[in-house]
Amino acid sequence: MNTKPLLILSLALNVVFGVVIITTLSPETDSTLGLSGTGNYSESPLGQAATNSQQVVTNTVVKQMTWETVEAADYHESIENLRNIDCPEETIRDIILADVNKL
Predict the structure, then answer these.
(1) What is the pLDDT along the chain (103 residues), one digit of tens a residue?
(2) Which of 31, 96, 99, 103 has the fewest CB atoms within 10 Å, counting from its CB?
């Protein structure tokens, strides 16, 4: 069997598929967003600033929870303090039961 024509046909199809894949994966210019092929922005979409600046976000602690803010001499006040810091009711129950069992 002569395999030379099949080899040439396979090679030609591979080249065609390679070109199709490369053209579909390559970045294209989008005139609606003002993008150029180099990745630089020529216009600002939706009125945003034209510069590419980074926004710095910092996290600040508003109120830090410590056990001194939660514990109290009275169980009712301790339970209220735990509820104020959004402690789950099951956890509150476990804490109070452990404290009572210590006595």
Answers:
(1) 678 888 888 999 999 988 888 888 876 655 444 444 455 555 555 655 556 667 777 777 666 777 788 888 888 998 998 888 888 999 989 988 998 888 7
(2) 103
**Is residue 27, in this structure, part of any structural domain at all?**
no
In a domain, 75, yes or no: yes
Query: Using CA atoms, how far apart are residues 12 and 29, in angstroms rounded to an integer?
Result: 29
| Number of domains composing the chain | 1
Q: How far is Cα 81 from Cα 92, in angstroms, rounded to an integer?
A: 10
pTM of model > 0.70? no
3-class state of residue 41 by DSSP: strand
Residue 86 inside a domain? The answer is yes
Which residue range forms the structural domain that includes residue 88?
67-102
What are the φ/ψ torsions at residue 2 (nearest 5 degrees)?
A: -90, 110
Token pair of 63 as six digits: 């109120």
